[in-house]
Specification:
Elements: E1 7-10, H1 19-28, E2 33-40, H2 41-46, H3 49-53, E3 62-67, H4 71-81, E4 88-93, H5 98-102, H6 113-126, E5 131-135, E6 138-139, H7 144-157, E7 162-166, E8 169-170, H8 177-180, H9 188-197, E9 202-206, H10 212-218, E10 224-227, H11 229-233, H12 241-246, H13 255-271, H14 276-280, H15 293-302, H16 312-319, H17 323-333
Parallel strand pairs: 1-2, 1-10, 2-3, 3-4, 4-5, 5-7, 6-8, 7-9, 9-10
Helix pairs in contact: 4-6, 6-7, 13-16, 15-16
Length: 334
């Protein structure tokens, strides 16, 4: 996939953006760029590759996010992933979790930009699709106005095709991963300045963006916008993304069609040995704020977790929502 501007994306989120989540989001937006959870290079090399890397062809365009700090291992992971057909390979230089730090990758790589550059160069040498980097503006006591340009200079020289910047510092000491997503102040301005400094480079922005209106405002300054928790916890906002950002014809969301497609998908997953909860847990936030949404959430959260639960639970949950009202609300928010 060659980057087209603008790009609207759903961020990689550990424990959330698995293949079932991505399939669900793809049924709502046909064009948004979707990301996997971060997958550690060692796990791809030594672990259950099929489970870690397989995905439904409908998920395209979809990017694989890798975690690691060893150039040779990352290159090997890229080679292994190649037959699966991802549209992009992304290197995680932003995750602040303890398990990531213990592996000396993620946000702590902001402290060693030369290592990030070596990783990007190694990945580029074997990749057949764009290689991109997702980073923070800095970590701990770093001065972002110095640390961020240095990182970008090095990884762009190494061949990175695009940069996604989470517009917050990460504090590796003293803040939990959850706190790192909320407490460090947002600084969108520094991301805009990076775009001004590298006008020819695709630079996307992430962090604290809550709506499509906010996304559109950012696209006045940068090439791409990435929503994380806002898109996951209220997936219905993805319904207008194709019209707003990709030139699709404005249309009312087909909630009944979505229900039928997700029931069919859940049935296939159950037939292959999976459980309904694997799919349904990602759908809980679909109708946030609409009449019947509380009952919808209750049904998906409790009934889908019961032994033997089948696709009919999805039908029951949708039946609790006023779908005509949902359409009207969506039309008013567009």
């Amino acid at each position: 996939m060659m980057y087209k501007r603008p790009v609207f994306a759903v961020a990689p989120m550990i424990d959330w953006t698995d293949r079932h989540c991505r399939y669900f989001h793809r049924q709502i937006s046909r064009s948004a760029l979707l990301y996997t959870e971060m997958v550690v290079a060692d796990a791809i090399i030594h672990g259950p590759r099929e489970r870690l890397l397989s995905f439904d062809a409908e998920e395209h365009p979809v990017a694989l996010q890798l975690g690691g700090s060893d150039p040779a291992k990352l290159a090997e992971a890229v080679r292994i992933a190649a037959p699966y057909g991802y549209d992009e390979i992304n290197l995680n230089v932003g995750c602040p979790s303890d398990r990531v730090q213990s592996g000396t990758f993620g946000a702590c790589l902001m402290l060693t930009p030369e290592v990030v550059a070596e990783c990007v160069a190694a990945m580029k040498a074997v990749a057949t699709v764009p290689v991109t980097v997702k980073c923070r503006i800095g970590v701990d006591e770093q001065e972002p106005e110095e640390a961020l340009p240095e990182l970008l200079t090095r990884v762009l020289d190494a061949g990175a095709d695009a940069i996604w910047i989470h517009a917050r510092k990460a504090w590796l000491k003293g803040l939990s991963p959850k706190e790192n997503r909320e407490i460090p102040p947002l600084d969108y301005g520094i991301v805009y300045r990076m775009k001004e400094r590298w006008p020819e480079v695709f630079i996307g922005i992430n962090g604290g963006i809550q709506s499509l209106d906010e996304a559109a405002a950012h696209l006045e300054h940068v090439d791409g916008v990435m929503l994380g928790r806002a898109a996951y916890q209220n997936a219905g906002i993805l319904a207008d993304a194709d019209h707003r950002f990709f030139g699709a014809r404005a249309a009312e969301p087909d909630w009944e069609g979505l229900r039928e497609r997700m029931m069919a998908y859940a049935a296939r997953h159950i037939e292959s040995g999976g459980r309904l909860q694997h799919v349904a847990r990602h759908m809980v936030g679909l109708f946030t704020g609409l009449p019947g949404s509380r009952r919808y959430r209750q049904i998906l959260s409790t009934d889908a977790a019961k032994a033997g639960a089948g696709p009919e639970v999805i039908a029951a949950a949708f039946a609790a929502v006023d779908l005509a009202g949902a359409r009207q609300a969506e039309a008013l928010s567009a």
